[in-house]
Every structure is written in C-alpha cells, then in structure tokens.
Design brief:
- By secondary structure, the chain is of the alpha/beta class.
- The protein has a single domain, classed as NAD(P)-binding Rossmann-like Domain (Rossmann fold, 3-Layer(aba) Sandwich), CATH 3.40.50.720.
- It is built from 8 helices and 7 strands; from the N terminus they run βαβαβαβαβαβαααβ.
- The chain has helices at 18-29, 41-50, 71-82, 108-135, 157-177, 195-208, 212-221, 231-242, and strands at residues 9-13, 33-38, 60-63, 90-93, 139-144, 182-189, 253-256.
- Strand 5 (139-144), helix 5 (157-177) and strand 6 (182-189) form a beta-alpha-beta unit.
- The protein is globular and about 55 Å long.
- The model has no long low-confidence stretch (mean pLDDT 96).
Amino acid sequence: MNWNLSNKTALVCGSTSGIGKAIAQAFATSGASVILMARNEEKLRETLDALPTGSGQIHQMIKADFSQPQAPKKALDQWLQSNPNEHIDILVNNTGGPPPGPAHLAKVEEYLNAFNTHLINNHELVQCCLPGMKANGGGRIINVISTSVKIPLNGLGVSNTVRGAVGNWAKTLANELGAFNITVNNILPGATATDRLKGIIDKKSEKSGESKEIVTEKMLSEIPMKRFAEPEEVAAAAGFLASEAASYINGINIPVDGGRTGNL
C-alpha cells in the first residue's frame, strides 16, 4: 500500500492549530506540498516554517477568515489565478466549531453564521478545486466534522445541526464525483486535546458549577479508552484517506473517538 503523498498538493484549512495543524504536518511528512489556510498571518508563518521539507517540496500559505462570507473562496481563487500551472489534489475542509449551547436558545444568526462558516465555505472551496482535480484525473476531499453526525452531542445544538448538513452534503458529493476518481469522505473526531475542547470544558464547568477536573473526569468516563484523542491520531486518518491506499473508499464517515459514539 502506498502512503506516499509526494507530488501531491494539499490545501488544509484551519491549519495553524489543533487537528488542522496536525494534518498539515502529517501530509508534509508524507511528502505533500501543503498550502495552509487560516486567518492569523503570524500563526500561518510559524506553522509554515515548521513544516517538514524532506521531499524537496515547497509549502505555501493563504490568509483567509472563515467567519467572513466568501473570504476563503476569494483567497483561493486569487491563488489559483496567480499559479495557473498548479492545482489542488487534496482538499481538507476544517474550521473551528460553533459556540456551545442548547439548540432551542440559539439565535437565528448563530445558525446562519455556522451554516456559512462550514457548509457554504466548504462548498465554494470544493468548486474552486474541482476543475484541477478533474483535469488531473482525480482527487481527495476530506471533511473534518464531528461524531455528532451520528449522534447529537448534548449542549452543542448549532454544531449538531450544521455538522449533519455537512455530512449529507459530503455524501451527495461522493455519489456525484466518484466517476471522476474524486473521493469525498468525512472524519468525525471525538473529544480531542485541542483549544476547542478546553473551551467546552470551561463552559460546562461554568454552567454546572463543577470543577474543570470533575467535568473532565465525567467526559473521560464516556470514552471506552478513558482518554482524549491527540490531534495526531485524527491526522493519521486523514493521511490514510488522502493516500492511494484509500483509492476505493468513498462517501463514508470515520469516527476517531476511542469508541465513544454509541452506534456503528
């Protein structure tokens, strides 16, 4: 099986921290030329400088704020126009999740913002990358979503709603693009040791009045492996899906959650 990503160009969104950063590092280690996309220029440069270049690849970065409508699309369009001889082989759609809170108390604006940040941005980036993928005979689209695609998570009402929409959008794309040798798959991280998880623990602690340690222990008790995932463990799934070893895997959800999700 070939896990080598040499001569591949991967666009990794939300790639200056957490899971996105770990995916960018894993891809670069496997030989891919990585294009980082995130909003913080300083963090982009720091992450860019730290990416491995053992295969002689040249990494790049694109600054774009996913909270701004059409900003990622405009930024990628500009990059593609400035690099007419290049294309994206692997697209990783990934960005921070909506704030926690119950669904029935969320404002309409929260749903609209999350819908634009996740589904619409994902869709526009796919449309930017598709011509190059088709011309080159194939490609990979990997969406980092959440296990809430399978079972909604308590206290994440807006996220549950939007993640489900992204999951069904991705499955539809997989059906449509398979004939072009373009696979579309979703990674569903469980509780992963990132800044977002820290924020969720802080919110639960504040709301319940329990200490962060107790909140953490309760979360760990729901995971058969009794620990949180490391970002690198989620990145390993992305590396596999991006490789030739996953050439016939299309339209699936892969939970990386230590067994927490209560169904198959």
